[in-house]
Design brief:
Elements lengths: L1 H12 L20 H24 L3 E8 L5 H9 L7 E4 L6 H4 L5 H4 L7 E6 L8 H4 L5 H20 L2 E9 L2 H13 L9 H8 L1 H15 L6 E5 L3 H15 L36
Parallel strand pairs: 1-3, 1-4, 2-3, 4-5
């Protein structure tokens, strides 16, 4: 822990002189109150339930990409979206490092295998845009592979859309100061320590390179048919609510009316329960 904390402290010194847009948000906002946040979250999650039932009923196929810097809050938003939903309808895809076989495939191939069938929503916690970000900046792909991706990605997404898939792309924008605060929190909190890695440190040390890579990526892939939607993510609560609200606004849906269900009493006639002593129960610690 001390090692990571020390490295963060060292790197924070190099970020004191900031250019416009590289530091904290210029918008001076107070943090959203917990009461308002949870009230709105409950309301929006109810709408998400209606949306995912509509997707299922109408055989829609929805893909949502979540991209951004480390600790930008992508996982937190995804968690709040899926919290009340049926995992058979809405699932999360977070692919790890490609296998040796996958490295020899068409680059998009392993992502195609995760695309939704009719009646499904798939949330990509990082996506094929790894190639334009971490792979490019960290040298995990060749220059030829990088430029080929930038040229191919818009055509790939256009193909998905023309096949009837709804594709939504979110970029979570976080300032260097806020990212540093979240890194410190992760380092110090045992429940969040697993979220932090040496790769995060390496990525942070290359802040400018990642900024340039993001700008280049947008110049090629922020298209009219499949635009990037940027989320101001310095305030986690606002970012979550704004993203969910925006997602709901993109997909027209209606509430599915369910038949009234009446629970009739269960008849226990003809059944004799075995003695409880014949079963092994877990200890009642609480």
């Amino acid at each position: 822990m001390d090692y990571f904390y020390l490295k963060i402290s060292e790197m924070s010194k190099s970020h004191k002189q900031k250019k416009p847009g590289q530091g904290s948000s210029d918008i001076n906002q107070t943090r959203l109150s917990k009461k308002l946040y949870f009230s709105e979250l409950d309301r929006l999650q109810l709408e998400l339930v209606k949306l995912h039932e509509w997707v299922k009923a109408k055989d829609l196929r929805v893909v949502v990409l979540f991209e951004g810097r480390d600790a930008a809050g992508k996982g937190g938003v995804i968690k709040r979206i899926t919290q009340r939903l049926n995992p058979r309808i809405c699932r999360v895809v977070a692919l790890g490092v490609p296998t040796e076989r996958e490295k020899k495939q068409w680059y998009f191939q392993r992502y195609v295998a995760q695309l939704p069938a009719a009646g499904e929503i798939v949330l990509f916690d990082r996506s094929w845009y790894n190639r334009a970000g971490v792979e490019h900046v960290m040298g995990f792909c060749t220059e030829e592979e990088y430029w080929d991706f930038l040229r191919s990605s818009p055509r790939f997404e256009e193909m998905l859309i023309h096949s009837g898939i709804i594709v939504v792309k979110y970029w979570f924008s976080v300032s260097d100061d806020e990212q540093e605060n979240r890194f410190r929190e992760r380092i110090q909190d045992p429940l969040k320590r697993w979220k932090f890695s040496e790769m995060d440190l390496e990525s942070r040390s290359r802040w400018i390179e990642y900024s340039k890579a993001k700008d280049e990526m947008f110049s090629y892939t922020d298209t009219k048919i499949c635009p990037w939607f940027v989320v101001n993510a310095d305030d986690k609560r606002r970012a979550r609510l704004n993203t969910i609200h925006h997602l709901l606004s993109l997909i027209p849906y209606k509430e599915i009316k369910h038949k009234k269900i009446n629970l009739s009493p269960i008849s226990m006639e003809g059944y004799v329960r075995p003695p409880l002593t014949d079963q092994t129960f877990i200890p009642e610690v609480y």
